Automatic annotation (TrEMBL):
Pfam families: ABC_tran. InterPro entries: AAA+_ATPase, ABC_transporter-like_ATP-bd, ABC_transporter-like_CS, P-loop_NTPase. Residues 3-238 form the ABC transporter domain. This is ABC transporter ATP-binding protein. Belongs to the ABC transporter superfamily. Keywords: ATP-binding, Nucleotide-binding, Translocase, Transport. GO terms for molecular function: ATP binding. Part of the ABC transporter complex HmuTUV involved in hemin import. Responsible for energy coupling to the transport system. Gene3D superfamilies: P-loop containing nucleotide triphosphate hydrolases (3.40.50.300).
Length: 276
């Protein structure tokens, strides 16, 4: 089953947010969408979710244009988690997670046994079961992110599109979240996650899509998409690489990559007389 984008273009106020973006995504894989701030990552995710119509091109789900799918069907098949997504009401955690089951429920109907089981699974997977009776205003930013991730997982959709799902999480919960996303993908869900942590993206993702200025500039397994040359050109950083004890390759953004002009300027500064 494939979620595809073909020739996507989107402009706003005379500025190109997305330019001729084409992408084919398959279920069962964790895809990391990375790039510098303003590269168009969140915009592309919104287009893929059907929340933002493109000016040019088309998004399709299993060959059917997304725009032709009824909203209810689309909501059952594509779950989305976006930065800044609020709850709107002072609900308890269990009630927030239960919102993920709305696409599966008839109007004004209660929770079915299947709904209750899905909610319990999502809360256990994200470690928020103990928060079930807490009110949303009492949650920390990290707890709130985990609850919102649980809400998205409770949909049990074919696709999960997540915008910075590990933001605000401490290191242990970041590892837990990435492990959970990878395990969820292994069970057959297609997951696309916007990530800024290149180290975790390279370690956990099956595929990395690199964006720059509204375009895709690299796409492939982490070792092919996150080359030294690409990281320097797109992010302006150099990295240290190594292997963990289990043989897993890793990279660490280590320093700003310098252009030839910057190197010359630094050399001039070091050799010039100091003013004092």
């Amino acid at each position: 089953m494939i979620l595809s984008a073909a020739g996507i273009g989107l402009d706003r106020d005379g500025r190109a947010l997305l330019s001729d973006v084409s992408l084919g995504l398959e279920r069962g894989r964790l895809v990391g969408l990375v790039g510098p701030n303003g590269a168009g990552k969140t915009t592309l995710l919104r287009v893929l979710a059907g929340l933002l119509p493109p000016r040019r091109g088309e998004v399709a789900l299993d060959g059917v244009p997304l725009a032709r799918l009824p909203r209810e069907a689309r909501a059952r098949r594509i779950a989305a988690l976006f930065q800044g997504a609020g709850v709107g009401w002072p609900l308890r955690v269990r009630e927030i997670v239960a919102l993920g089951r709305l696409p599966h429920r008839r109007a004004f109907s209660g929770l079915s046994p299947a709904d209750a089981a899905a909610i319990a699974r999502a809360m256990a997977a994200t470690g928020v079961t103990a928060l079930a009776e807490r009110g949303e205003p009492t949650l920390s930013s990290g707890e709130r992110m985990r609850v919102l991730l649980a809400r998205a997982l409770a949909v049990e959709a074919e696709w999960l599109l997540a915008d910075e799902p590990i933001t605000a999480l401490d290191p242990a919960h970041q590892l837990d979240a990435m492990t959970l996303l990878r395990a969820t993908a292994r069970k057959g869900t297609g997951i696309v996650a916007v990530l800024h942590d290149l180290t975790l993206a390279a370690r956990f993702c099956d595929r990395i899509v690199v964006m720059e200025a509204g375009r895709i500039v690299a796409d492939g397994p982490p070792d092919r998409a996150l080359t030294d040359a690409r990281l320097a050109a797109t992010f302006g950083v150099s990295v240290c690489r190594g292997r963990a004890a289990d043989g897993t390759a890793y990279l660490l953004p280590w320093d700003r990559a310098t252009t030839e002009d910057e190197t010359d300027a630094a050399s001039l500064y070091r050799t010039s007389p100091r003013p004092f």
